[in-house]
Amino acid sequence: MSERNRYSPQVHDRGRNSVRCKAAALGVAALFSFGADLSQSVEPLQGDREQGRRVFEAKGCILCHAPKGKPREIGPTLTALQRPQGLLELAGRLWNHAPAMQQLLAERGKAWPTLSRKEMADLAVFLLARHGADRPGSEVRGQTLLLKKGCLKCHAFLGEGAGVGPDLSRYPGYGSPLDWATSVWDHAPKMRARAEKLGTDYPRFEGDEMVDLVEFLKASAARNQGAR
């Protein structure tokens, strides 16, 4: 299919109508409050493994994810968390981890541990995640995930959707997996709270599905920017 046919007004209108209809039937909420400081976003930011270890301990991660052979209260061991992966795959794993961790922190009367961009870079290195390690994403699969995960219950997309959160076609940080991972983590409590308010399940990402979702959103944002 040529680029002209693929993105013709007729095809685009049908796609928007499909998004509108399918979003109405979805019951999963996602709230991204894009708070990372994108003005300083330059990829890749070099993380430090030793600093990452300190972040892992300082933020309390080690209390639930202890090194192999050490007593642990809940959650996989540190060894299980450390595996070669891309930053977007890590972002998906952090997303999935948020509800259980937030519940545990609430039970203990503790606040959600935020992460700066530098802290996320260090933590990623410690967990064996690196920039450029994600596989190439699929726009087609990403569009399906946008609907399947119910993102439009909170977000607008090319003018469609709920519009509670930012318009996903206008977010400037898709080119930085590190910024994406930082935003996902720091705003996870809001995402979960929104899902509970809507009475829906918190969406989960299997494997590296996050790679496909971000690829579709990044390509759509670029086309939207170019059309202005």
Task: Describe the 3D structure.
This protein has one domain (3-226). Helices cover 50% and strands 4% of the residues. The chain has helices at 3-6, 9-24, 49-58, 78-81, 87-107, 117-126, 139-148, 177-186, 188-198, 209-226; strands spanning 85-86, 129-130, 156-157, 160-161. Mean pLDDT is 78; it is low at 1-40.
Keywords:
228 residues, mainly alpha, two-stranded parallel ribbon, two-stranded antiparallel ribbon, 10 helices, 50% helix
User: Percent of residues in beta strands?
Assistant: under 5%
Number of distinct helices:
10
What Rg, in angstroms, do the CA atoms define? 18 Å
Q: How are strands sequenced across the largest beta sheet?
A: 1-2
Q: Mind summarizing the main beta sheet? A: 2 strands, parallel
Query: Average pLDDT across residues?
Result: 78
Model regions low in confidence, pLDDT < 50 over at least 5 residues:
1-40
Helix content: 40-55%
Overall geometry comes to globular
How would you classify the helix and strand content by structural class? mainly alpha
Q: Can you tell me the number of structural domains? A: 1
Give the total of beta strands: 4
